[in-house]
Specification:
The chain has three helices and no strands. It is mainly α. The chain has a domain of 54 residues. The protein is elongated, with a radius of gyration of 24 Å. The N and C termini lie far apart (75 Å).
Length: 85
């Protein structure tokens, strides 16, 4: 999976974060963002476009697990009666 170029990790800039969020949500690219933000947008949108069924299948199975789990509610006695000593 190595591309042969050495890249160092760095935090994303504000516009790169906005571009990543927009790409993940399927929102359009803002032309005011930087060239680096464009690369982030294209990378994320390409990755999401190649695997939408896997993402949605995972979300659907998680939602199904949450909705089918039976829950039991235990009621606690909240009376404040004092006992005589």
């Amino acid at each position: 999976m190595s591309t042969g170029t050495k890249q160092t990790a760095r935090p994303l800039t504000h516009d790169e974060k906005k571009a990543a969020e927009a790409a993940f949500r399927g929102a359009p690219f803002n032309p005011k963002w930087s060239e680096a933000a464009r690369k982030v947008y294209q990378g994320v949108s390409g990755a999401v476009a190649n695997r939408p069924s896997e993402v949605f299948r995972g979300l659907a199975s998680q939602t199904h697990k949450l909705s089918t789990t039976s829950t039991t509610i235990e009621r606690k006695n909240r009376s404040r009666s004092k006992t005589k000593i």
